[in-house]
């Protein structure tokens, strides 16, 4: 996870994403590439934007972001790319060259009230590897914890590795959250489920330990806090993420439809998490 690509569009949220990407590149001792994508098709639409104006705006956005990075991290190796095409498609195509793709949760388009823009969502759903989606608040520089959702799935396993590796670079601790929810009728005290909460918590905790045991030997310097929660996974993770540096989650978990690019938990985090969300696609 050394080389990082970040999408730049001239927005404030995009600039927070650039800062987050630059900080990660410094910690990982890797390179940073800034990419601005502009659509030439807009010059042929009814609005008739001149193509040279679109290009100048794109170049200006990239140069502004590059200058901002150079001012704060003068020794960081930065590459700047300005390309034409669909922003989501181009970011996804170039992402194959990098370890992590970083985007702002919302860009300059969209409408008021949107929690995540279409480009960020498409990239988070279809990236070939790791995607870090950064919100308007950016990253809390004082945060020292990385939350990761664990459920035993292959995607979640990749999120665990990403969280441990990031924590190792930053000197952070990891909070591993395993959430479980009983059948709906158990909440009303009906049937045998009413008396097995304690046993289920022990069983789920053992499952969490089994997952961590596969990866902790590779990261002996990382402190890991275990949290087994009775409740909906998305709610448990959002609650745990308050004050965290970032939250890592698999693109899909053990439930849901196999053909969905994003599971319900990842979808909820992208919309409601209070910190940047790292989505892991690798299996």
Layout of secondary structure:
Blueprint: E1 4-7, H1 12-28, E2 32-38, H2 51-72, E3 78-84, H3 87-95, E4 100-104, H4 118-126, E5 130-134, E6 145-149, H5 154-170, E7 173-180, H6 197-215, E8 224-230, H7 233-240, E9 246-250, H8 264-272, E10 277-280
Parallel strand pairs: 1-2, 1-4, 2-3, 4-5, 6-7, 6-9, 7-8, 9-10
Antiparallel strand pairs: 5-10
Helix pairs in contact: 3-4, 7-8
Structure characterization notes:
- By secondary structure, the protein is an alpha/beta fold.
- Helices cover 39% and strands 20% of the residues.
- It is built from 8 helices and 10 strands.
- The protein has a 10-stranded mixed beta sheet, with helices on both faces.
- The mean pLDDT is 86.
Proportion of strand residues: 15-25%
The helix/strand class is: alpha/beta
The biggest sheet amounts to: 10 strands, mixed
| Number of strand segments | 10
The chain-level mean pLDDT equals: 86
Give helix % range: 25-40%
Q: Terminal Cα separation, in Å? A: 15 Å
- How do the strands line up in the largest sheet? 3-2-1-4-5-10-9-6-7-8
Q: Which series of helices and strands comes N to C?
A: EHEHEHEHEEHEHEHEHE
Apparent shape: elongated
Rounded to an integer in angstroms, the radius of gyration calculated over CA atoms is: 20 Å
- SS element count, helices: 8
Low-confidence stretches: none
